[in-house]
What we know:
The complex is a heterodimer.
Chain A: E1 3-8, E2 13-20, E3 25-32, H1 38-43, E4 50-54, E5 58-59, E6 78-80, E7 83-84, H2 97-103, E8 107-110, H3 114-122, E9 128-133, H4 138-146, H5 153-157, E10 163-165, E11 171-176, H6 181-189, E12 193-198, H7 203-208, E13 213-216, H8 229-238, E14 243-246, H9 248-256, E15 261-270, E16 275-277, E17 282-284, E18 288-294, E19 304-310, E20 316-321, E21 326-329, H10 344-358
Parallel strand pairs in A: 3-4, 4-6, 5-7, 6-8, 11-12, 11-13, 13-14, 14-21
Antiparallel strand pairs in A: 1-2, 1-9, 2-8, 3-9, 10-12, 15-18, 16-17, 16-19, 19-20, 20-21
Helix pairs in contact in A: 8-9
Chain B: E1 2-6, H1 8-26, E2 32-37, H2 40-56, E3 62-67, E4 84-88, E5 97-105, H3 109-121, E6 126-134, E7 146-150, E8 158-162, E9 171-175
Parallel strand pairs in B: 2-3, 2-5, 5-6, 6-7
Antiparallel strand pairs in B: 1-9, 3-4, 8-9
Helix pairs in contact in B: 1-2
Domain Phosphoribosyltransferase (chain B): 6-152
Organism (chain B): Levilactobacillus lanxiensis
Pfam family, one (chain B): Pribosyltran
Amino acid sequence: MAKRYLILEDGSAYAGEGFGAGATTSGEVISNLNLLGYQETITDQIYHNQIIIFAQPAIGNVGINHDSYESILPTAKGMVVRDVTNISTNRLSRLSLDEFLQQHNIPGISGIDTRHLIRKLRQEDGPMKGSIVDVADAHAFDQLNATVLTNRQVDQVATPKPYPNPDTGKNVVVIDFGLKHGILRQLSERRCNVTVLPWTASAQDVLNLDPDGVLLSTGPGSPLDLGEGVLDMIREVQAEIPLFAIGLGHELFALANGAELTMLPVEYHGSSHPIRRIITNDIIYATQGQGYAVVAKSIDRDRLITTYVDLINGTVQGLRHRDFPAFSVQFFADGAPGPHESRDLFDEFMEAMTARREG
Amino acid sequence: MAKVVVDAMAMQRALTRITYEIIERNKGVDDLVILGIKTRGVYLARRIASRLQQLENVTVPVGDLDVTPYRDDIEHDAQGEPEVTATNMDFSVAGKKVILVDDVLYTGRTIRAAMSAVMDLGRPKSINLAVLVDRGHRELPIRADFVGKNIPSSQRERIKVSVSEIDDRDAVEIQQA
Lengths: 359, 177
């Protein structure tokens, strides 16, 4: 395999071997601490324009299978791994990771001391740009430093047009900010008749469909870049219809209800933090992926109740409106990849819809 | 033959949702008191109170009412009405928002008796009813404000609620008579 480099905007360069596509790409470099689920990770649109460093040292050993796509067209900018494995014994595997990355023009680099790199990035106090390049010369660094990363991530990955995912059960409108397929799978398992709307949909667009419930999806980038329109939509919809928000949706739900957000110095992507479910005072684990967090002190207690909290970094992981059946979680309740124990939030959503219709 | 219609996880979720709905409806937990109807309503009432405590860091008073045995598996005769035989609460209900909690809402006669007993003790600001299961077949104009699960049932069937505090598990089952 060809020798390639990961270079960072602080001037450091790491030599490794290329796999996947031979493209030269730039993006924000982030670390993912999950042990499982590299396919879900690289296909999750929250990683749009990002280069992902995997803490798990062996990546590629279950290939690529049809059950684990979180989107069909991945838009991550690269994978940085310790060892890449192309031997897969998984019976579902139809494609190797290497082939998959080639098809989607995503470069990978292996043989990198990912633990060292992750430790270093954790000490930074802001995002770090990086590139995967053939030659780590002054020109490559100039190119990297001149790269301006977009803040229109949601526009680039979310659906521009509505589409249905029909079934025979409850009518659910999903607002797409760059959703994970895991969300649609969980709704399908519960027979929901889903309509996915673009994130620019107005409250009227939503209410016209007479949904039993509305779900605000996960998505990439900053919730602060999406404008007031979406917050107005949330405020109007939550007063009428049970609402469940995940990830970016949670951050927007918080903003719509007067809370403030802070950008984390280092994005957190992992599933090893114990999360306390406050109402029953027990612990769950879930896949988390966040660059922003709700500021606990900014929460207006007359409007919102904190429902989940991360016990390692103290971040707010769940909120609920005091006046309406509207609730949100920062972590990925669809459990793709990762711990499945928060999937019953989808049952909670179903039951909130039932209670609303029957009550 | 028994069929589990609400498992332990679903029961936890139902109580969680009822708790949030109580907060929504009452705009908080001020002046709230919770009364469980014996036997299983008492444990459900305590679980709701402990959830409110976790969320709001406020101790909501919990009491219980003992209603004469009146079971839906025993054919009741038209003469006998359930009556509250004992109340166990160390607080006044006067001016309070009372939440009555029972496991199964059926004819409504137990709830009527409970409401009379509460009224005899003082004038509450309001009385709301929370039940884990509403199985229908009301004989009085009584309706629950908070319902864990509606289970349409035949009168020949028996709804059995188990709570882990006194039974071996949390579950709601339907048994064919």
